[in-house]
Amino acid sequence: MITSDRDDSAGLATRPLSLAAATLAALVAYSDASAAIEIEAEQEARVGKMLILKLPGNRKAGYRWHLNEEKSRGLDLVDVDQIAWTIPNDDNVRSMFFRNHSVLSIRIMPQAAGEANLAFDYFRLWGNKPFVKTHMVRVTISP
């Protein structure tokens, strides 16, 4: 049981916290710890020229990619859309547990010159480890 160590005059020092409050506290602690996320990939693009980003994953096991708008910067410079999950015919894209990983193709359409830092969260909604990682992509857009 998760308890509060808040001292109050009513003697409720060990009052149980709700699951929602405990989850929120864990997410806040996690987001504070990961505030400095490093750029893992850099792409160059031109205004109006589509860029395809491919992110490997395991969709069959419930994992998903999601654009994290709070961690991203420069979203006004690009349009971002998911296209489709595919299974590549590449022996280098395999895991120990599953025959093939899937790859999510994401369309990035630059709208204006500048720099966009896009944060993609890789997660699944069930299990004891719902959040896995954030993949940061810097897109430098020229006119």
Q: Identify the strand order in the major beta sheet.
A: 1-7-6-3
How would you characterize the largest beta sheet? 4 strands, mixed
User: In which range does the helix fraction lie?
Assistant: 10-25%
Structural Rg: 20 Å
* Percentage of residues in DSSP E strands: 35-45%
Q: Give the number of domains.
A: 2
Structural class: mainly beta
The global form is globular
SSE series: HEEEEEEE
Number of helices: 1
Query: From the 3D coordinates, which CATH architecture of the largest domain would you assign?
Result: Sandwich
Mean pLDDT: 75
The low-pLDDT segments are 1-36
CATH structural fold name of the largest domain: Immunoglobulin-like
CATH class of the largest domain: Mainly Beta
Instruction: Please provide the count of β strands.
Output: 7
First-last Cα distance: 57 Å
Structure description:
There is one protein chain. This protein is mainly β. The protein has one helix and seven strands; from the N terminus they run αβββββββ. Helices cover 10% and strands 40% of the residues. It has a four-stranded mixed beta sheet, with no helix packed on it. A three-stranded antiparallel beta sheet has the order 2-5-4, with no helix packed on it. The N terminus is likely disordered.
Gist of the model:
Helix content is 10%, strand content 40%.
Blueprint of the fold:
Elements: H1 19-33, E1 41-46, E2 51-57, E3 64-67, E4 78-86, E5 102-110, E6 114-123, E7 131-142
Parallel strand pairs: 1-7
Antiparallel strand pairs: 2-5, 3-6, 4-5, 6-7
